[in-house]
Amino acid sequence: GKVKSVPELLKIYYETVGRGCNLILNLPPDRRGRIHENDAKALREWRRILEATFARDLARGAKATADNTRGDDARFAPGNVVDGDGKTYWAADDSAKTAELVLDLGKPVAFNVVRVREYLPLGQRVEGFALDSWQDGKWTEFATATSIGNQRLLRTAAITSSKVRLRITKAAACPAISEVGLFLAL
Asked: What is the mean pLDDT of residues 158-180?
């Protein structure tokens, strides 16, 4: 009777892992020392949904541009956020505490989950950011949040856009972003 439903499991995932925290489900074994069949069934469906959601990054390979790139050095190019390599990152100049990064997807793409990651070997830097979509010839803000850290997952209503903009609105040091991904959750 206390089985967590798949929507509850998804909510827990996005509110923990999606905010850079550890996932703790508190699923106790039953009197047999096993996870109850109903819990196991819900967990399998939850896993299937997560795997399907994150199987394809819709931003992979997008054309990325930024208002600032550290020393105009290709090692810190905006395209690093969509290359699928967690060891590369886009960085702004040391003096930049705010910055903008635009992903041109080349065509309208539908998504409802955004994943942003900082390059953590340099430390957690971002204290505030916003996301915008290109709608009717202008930018429209669809999400804001505070820290990014290892990963920040933001669920939104379904959005279809050919461009997405990440605005770093506050940072303790110049931003160093290793990924901006777009996904369509079931």
From this structure: 97
Q: How many residues comprise the chain? A: 186
- Assign 41 to helix, strand or coil: helix
104-126 mean pLDDT: 97
Q: Which tokens belong to 161?
A: 């856009």
Question: What average pLDDT does range 84-108 have in this prediction?
Answer: 96
Beta strand pairing call for 99-118 and 152-171: antiparallel
**Is 142 in contact with 133 (CB distance < 8 Å)?**
yes
How far apart CA 11 and CA 94 sit, in angstroms, is: 37
pTM beyond cutoff 0.85:
yes
Give the integer Cα–Cα distance in Å for 76 and 162: 24
Q: Is the predicted pLDDT of residue 132 greater than 80, yes or no? A: yes
> How many whole angstroms from its chain centre is CA 117?
6
Cα 56 off chain centre by: 13
Sorted by sequence, the CB contacts under 8 Å of residue 12 that are 6+ apart come out as: 4, 23, 25
Return the C-alpha torsion angle 33, 34, 37, 38, nearest 10: 70
Task: Say if residue 69 is exposed, middle or buried (CB neighbours under 10 Å; 0-12, 13-18, 19+).
Answer: buried
Residue 5 has phi, psi (to 5 degrees) of -75, 165
- DSSP labels for 9-26? HHHHHHHHGGGT------
Residue 1 has pLDDT above 80, yes or no: no
